[in-house]
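From the shared-data thread, chain only:
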Amino acid sequence: MAEEGLVTECQTVELWSDIFTKASESKKLTVVDFTATWCPPCRFIAPILADLAKKMTHVIFLKVDVDNLTSVSEQYDVEAMPTFLFFKEGKMVDKVVGAKKDELVAKIEQHATQVASA
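Structure, as tokens:
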């Protein structure tokens, strides 16, 4: 399972499936960062995401490299990096495309609050 306070990198399809299934079974918001090592905006947002993971331990943060896990990025129609997908119980509930820190934080707070109040 993904560790609290960390962004868990899914390096294989099997690992992705295992971690995503466990995250989906929890009631926690899951934020998946679709990224690429060659992408400057991805490198810009990575430390911000790591900081958010430390502060928001009630949220699961996962990272998928689109070049390593092409099938996963294609499954969710990811066409630009970074793309952040938000899931609750395995269902996608929102999306942020681009390294937009304020929008990312706002969406996490919005959806994490809805989970807590549900």
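The chain is about 45% helix and 25% strand.
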